[in-house]
Design brief:
Blueprint (H helix, E strand, L loop, with lengths): L2 H16 L12 E2 L12 H12 L19 H13 L4 E5 L2 H11 L6 E5 L4 H10 L2 E5 L4 H8 L6 E6 L11 H10 L3 E5 L11 H4 L8 E5 L9 E5 L1 H10 L1 H4 L6 H13 L4 H17 L11 E5 L3 H12 L3 E2 L1 E3 L10 E5 L6 H16 L1
Parallel strand pairs: 1-10, 3-4, 3-5, 5-6, 6-7
Antiparallel strand pairs: 2-8, 7-8, 9-12, 11-12
């Protein structure tokens, strides 16, 4: 075994010994309480039919995109869709990326420069952290949803300052005081960037649109792999920002463009969302039903993400296994994905979950808590 393999084995053995080892699992027949398919779009026969019809109506397109969008991979169809999505979210312009990770990596590695400042909530997504690291800007974090902590960091900002939050946090499922954060960014001449990945769908066009703040934030990131049921993401902002990203965003420039099928899927999901108020209401009803029957322990959240912090990897894995044995697919979230001591069950609720399954889940968790 050579030195590199010895290093790999040692790191994997360390993960196994401390209970943080990860491994892939195939799909199961369990009831879905773990996916981000909040409105059931990923399994929607209507959406599947529309996508097939849209692809068949454009028989001239290729199976793959053949290159990056700056070479051979750009389509008038894609640029038209970008503007349609921007208009839908009341933004000036948008740029589609192949994934939410690519969008955040591309935005935050390209925009802030050395001497600038990025201030993020301490629970911000890993893709934003990775992009910020690549920027060489000064980086600060503030305590989760804590305005006083944010203001302390703003006082030390230099250069162009970017404050970054999520409108629904992916691990706690809660929402920040967006209006108050925006007021602080005005006061300190900072730019607010909001990741709307887990808000679009349950909150319609997103929380920024629901609050009427579309023209007040510097940029938004909307991903299509959660409630939208397909794949990819878009950065929404000014036309100037879009032009800048086309020129400087490496995860956009140096990657093969998405296939026509992916772009057509995004177009069709934006056709379906405005017609899905009934599904959105079902999801809201299911969230309320589940919360009403949970006796204790959940983090405060009105979103589709409900979390029970149990405090250790072994306990989280054990409880998840017992829940799965009842036919319900709930997954544990372990450190280091979340900070040590905050290991948890992350429960994702959907419009298609039945009342019986929701009550079984609540009763099972209540019994495990009381044991």
């Amino acid at each position: 075994m050579n030195t590199a393999e010895e290093f790999i084995k040692a790191k994997l053995d360390e993960r196994r010994s401390n209970g943080t080892y990860r491994k892939l699992k195939p799909e199961s027949n369990l009831v879905d309480f773990c996916s981000n398919d909040y409105l059931g779009f990923a399994r929607s026969p209507i959406l599947k039919k529309w996508i097939e019809e849209e692809v068949n109506a454009n028989k001239h397109v290729l199976n793959g995109s053949t290159g990056s969008r700056l070479l051979s991979g750009n389509l008038a169809y894609t640029e038209s869709l970008e503007q349609e999505i921007a208009d839908f979210h009341q933004a000036e312009a948008g740029l589609i990326y192949n994934s939410g990770y690519d969008a955040n990596l591309g935005l935050f590695s390209a925009l802030p420069q050395r001497g600038d400042t990025i201030i993020t909530d301490e629970l911000i997504h890993a893709s934003i952290i990775d992009g910020a690291r690549l920027s060489h800007a000064n980086r600060f974090t503030f305590r989760h949803n804590d305005l006083q902590s944010l203001e302390e960091k703003l006082k030390h900002a230099t250069g162009n300052c970017y404050v970054v939050i999520e409108s629904v946090y992916s691990m706690d499922g809660d929402t920040p005081p967006i209006k108050e954060i925006l007021e602080l960014t005005y006061e300190y001449k900072a730019n607010l960037i909001v990741d709307e990945a887990h808000a679009v769908g349950l909150y319609g066009k997103g929380l920024i649109s629901q609050l009427g703040l579309e023209t007040e934030v510097f940029a938004r990131i909307v991903t299509f792999g959660k409630a939208m049921g397909c794949h990819g993401a878009i950065v929404l902002g000014s036309k100037l920002l879009r032009e800048y990203l086309v020129n400087f965003s490496r995860s956009f420039i140096y990657t093969t463009a998405a296939s026509f099928h992916q772009i057509a899927s995004i177009k069709m999901t934006y056709k379906l969302l405005p017609q899905s108020e009934a599904e959105i209401q079902k999801l809201r009803n299911n969230i309320n039903l589940f919360k009403q029957h949970m006796k204790q322990g959940l983090l405060t959240s009105d979103s589709a993400i409900q979390c029970l912090v149990v405090g250790s990897n072994e306990k989280a894995k054990g409880m998840a296994m017992q829940i799965q044995n009842t036919g319900l697919d709930v997954r544990p979230i372990l450190s280091p994905t979340v900070p040590k001591g905050t290991e948890r069950l992350r429960i994702c609720l959907h419009s298609f979950n039945t009342h019986d399954d929701l009550l079984l889940l609540a009763d099972t968790i209540n019994n495990l808590i009381n044991d």
